[in-house]
Amino acid sequence: MISYLRQYPAARRALSAASVVLALAAVGMLAYPLYSNLHDWWLQRRLARQINSTELVDRYRGNSLRDGDALTNIKIPRLGLETTVVQGISSSALRAGAGHYPSTSLPCEGGNVAIAGHRTTYGKPFADVDRLAEGDEIVLETPVGSCIYKVNRAPFVTGPRDWSVLGNIATQPGTLTLTTCHPKGSARERLIVQAVLTSPPVNRV
To answer: CA-based angle 107:36:59, to the nearest 5?
Structure first.
């Protein structure tokens, strides 16, 4: 191999170029999660300011939130998780880490509130939701109030196109569904966490 490379300089240059490309690709793969998490940190700071603004409260009450607007803070004590969820599940919206399916109910209202979140990038807010167990609390704090849900079954796996989990659950007055990719780093399946509303909404004055 060495003698071949000595005999053919063009092959030597091609090998060197390929090595550079592979090295750059490796650096990119390592740097992307860092970039996405830094982006999420910056965006979360902006959303934390937005969610308490008078303008957002008015849009929330008027049901006129835009894609990417702050919708609710989600807190899961068992996981030490606290992050701001935005309206929408577009690629740009989910750069915040977690987004609300617009076709589902608003937080703390009747029906099914569904939220999608990343497990490995953009702050990876749902990285450990597989650790949740029956009885664990999930708190949602919106611009106009707050409420508490409790996990009512162990997390389960479903297909990536199983949209039935986003539908209303007739036997429950209010439910919360969290969806994320499964296994970590793959979109082959979806991991689902479901919880039921256990406290009446507490409205802000």
So the answer is: 30
Whole-angstrom distance between the N-terminal and C-terminal Cα of the chain?
A: 77
d(CA 155, CA 76): 14
Cβ of 161: how many Cβ atoms within 10 Å?
Answer: 7
- Give the domain ranges of the chain: 37-203
* 32 phi/psi in degrees, rounded to 5: -60, -50
Which residues are paired to 196 by β-bridges? 150, 175
Q: Tokens 């909404």 sit at which residue?
A: 201
Is the domain covering 37-203 a CATH 3.40.50.720 domain? no
Entry pTM: 0.81
Inter-CA distances, 47 with 15, 28, 43, 53, 96, Å: 47, 28, 6, 10, 9
3-class SS of residue 109: coil
Per-residue pLDDT of the chain in tens (205 residues, 90 and over written 9):
556 546 656 655 554 545 444 443 343 344 455 667 777 788 889 998 899 899 999 999 998 999 999 999 999 999 999 999 999 999 999 999 999 999 999 999 889 999 999 999 899 999 999 999 999 999 999 999 999 999 999 999 999 999 999 988 767 789 999 999 999 989 899 999 999 999 877 776 5
Widest Cα–Cα separation across the chain: 82
